[in-house]
């Protein structure tokens, strides 16, 4: 579409500073003549840039490049506001629902306004994660032994994943994020693990194992949110609905069937917080046994 090409060219000139804030943008007549298009097409290109907050109409001056205070239609727009708004969206709707356009809409600004502060969604997600991991820290002076400090690290990370379920969905453990605030959690955990007095490779493996445990349980937090939204059924309702299929599944597997029968008789709730605490104790028990601590 020709109007998109024209808009892209003007967008580039603005980004490079060839058309600074306040400068007049070529008129529709000039654009139409330069690009060999109808004036309506040229006007459509300017309308698109106006919608993006890059230009504005000035009485008696025509169309000019918008200053930073005008772009996005909101003087209070900052990177921090964009990041916090994106976190609010992801906390409720999940990371998959996040988009730059959605953030702009939530802020009530032009669709392209956030790009003045953040290059795109990938950078936004990194900023979100760094902000989220920075919401909780550790005492200036550590107390207790390695197990006490590692327990604190696990519970701190779990609380952050609880608050922001999308954190567990970011990247595989094999591709750690270069985030300053995440490094704070890593340093605390590593300092505790270092007391086990093993070499660097073992220390790295133990830290990956520890963080993987937290992430592995936390990954179900957002998945449950999605399942609830998609099905409209609570966990208990879903189990009831699946009862016939579950009975057929365990048929011929006596241990499985006996466990399910007992759980059904005595009652059982799968609570992720309780499961996390139980697994964390088991992990630390294993380390204590292995290292004689």
Automatic annotation (TrEMBL):
InterPro entries: Bact_HTH_transcr_reg, Homeodomain-like_sf, HTH_TetR, Repressor_TetR_C, Tet_transcr_reg_TetR-rel_C_sf, Tscrpt_reg_HTH_GntR, WH-like_DNA-bd_sf, WH_DNA-bd_sf. Keywords: DNA-binding, Transcription, Transcription regulation. Residues 99-118 bind DNA. Residues 76-136 form the HTH tetR-type domain. Pfam families: GntR, TetR_C_1. Residues 1-68 form the HTH gntR-type domain. It comes from the Bacteria. This is GntR family transcriptional regulator. It comes from Amycolatopsis heterodermiae.
